């Protein structure tokens, strides 16, 4: 039997502090958390079968693969709670020693980006005989490995990528209206009810461009358009916005500008995410 240790921490203590009081030197089990949409490789830290935190995301892919290949991981508490200073969103964590234990040699690539969890991957064969390996699936939307390559390489985000991102936002913020697919909002009869309290929508325009429209932070019956490239909207975009929101005047904002010709989708989703978190 072989083992090795690293200094680490149990993340998310602020979420679980009501059910767990850490004790110095106590040992906690680790288990892969299948179905976690925030982290495909999430590893839960458990006490008596109950989740009390998670392995840090920066090493979760390594840990998940290690467990899947037969290894065991134990977290031993080494100190009291502290702030997670390297996370933008903050939070609390418990310092620990993470011990990896195995009966055999397990090769683990230390780059998180190289991992696809074999247990969650499915394959499909289309009519032409080409194999499309599913990378991730959520709410009947499938992204394949080609989509993964596009996203990781910073390529142009298409309809499927944008809708997938909006679906994740809709799950996280069910009180927000909008976040519909491009197919749905391009129907001539479709429009939003301005009486709805909060609306955020990523919109395709100018043949190959993405913008975000929202009433978050606006006065009643007002809409702001967030555009990372242009300072004005064309006639077709204006007509679409007028139909969707039943108003004739829009405010155009450019909080941050893209530096190339293909990052508009990324910026549009970033604008939508920021608005969702900053809603009032």
TrEMBL record:
A family per Pfam: HIRAN
GO biological process: proteolysis
Keyword list, A-Z: Hydrolase, Metal-binding, Protease
Ubiquitin-like protease family profile domain residues: 106-275
UniProt cross-references to InterPro entries, sorted A to Z: HIRAN, Papain-like_cys_pep_sf, Peptidase_C48_C
Keyword Mitochondrion: no
Molecular functions (GO terms): cysteine-type peptidase activity; hydrolase activity, acting on acid anhydrides, in phosphorus-containing anhydrides; nucleic acid binding; zinc ion binding
SMART domains in the record: HIRAN
Family per record: Belongs to the peptidase C48 family.
This protein's name: Ubiquitin-like protease family profile domain-containing protein
Lineage: Eukaryota, Metazoa, Porifera, Demospongiae, Heteroscleromorpha
């Amino acid at each position: 039997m072989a083992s090795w240790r690293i200094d680490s921490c149990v993340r998310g203590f602020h979420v679980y502090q009501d059910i767990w009081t850490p004790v110095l030197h106590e040992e906690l089990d680790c288990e892969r958390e299948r179905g976690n949409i925030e982290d495909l490789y999430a590893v839960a830290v458990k006490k008596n079968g109950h989740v009390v935190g998670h392995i840090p995301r920066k090493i979760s892919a390594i840990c998940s693969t290690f467990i899947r290949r037969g290894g065991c991981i134990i977290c031993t508490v080494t100190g009291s709670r502290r702030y997670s200073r390297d996370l933008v969103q903050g939070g609390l964590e418990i310092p620990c020693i993470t011990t990896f234990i195995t009966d055999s040699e397990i090769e683990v690539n230390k780059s998180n980006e190289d991992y696809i969890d074999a247990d969650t991957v499915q394959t499909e064969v289309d009519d032409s005989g080409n194999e499309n390996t599913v990378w991730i699936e959520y709410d009947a939307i499938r992204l394949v490995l080609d989509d993964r390559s596009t996203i990781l390489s910073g390529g142009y985000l298409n309809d499927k990528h944008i809708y997938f991102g909006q679906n994740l936002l809709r799950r996280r913020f069910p009180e927000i209206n909008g976040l519909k697919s491009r197919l749905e909002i391009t129907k001539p009869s479709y429009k939003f009810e301005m009486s709805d309290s909060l609306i955020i929508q990523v919109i395709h325009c100018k043949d190959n461009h993405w913008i975000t429209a929202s009433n978050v932070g606006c006065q009643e019956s007002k809409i702001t358009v967030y555009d990372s490239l242009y300072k004005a909207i064309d006639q077709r975009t204006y007509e679409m916005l007028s139909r969707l929101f039943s108003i004739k005047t829009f405010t155009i904002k450019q909080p941050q500008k893209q530096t190339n010709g293909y990052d508009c989708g990324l910026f549009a989703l970033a604008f939508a995410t920021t608005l969702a978190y900053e809603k009032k």
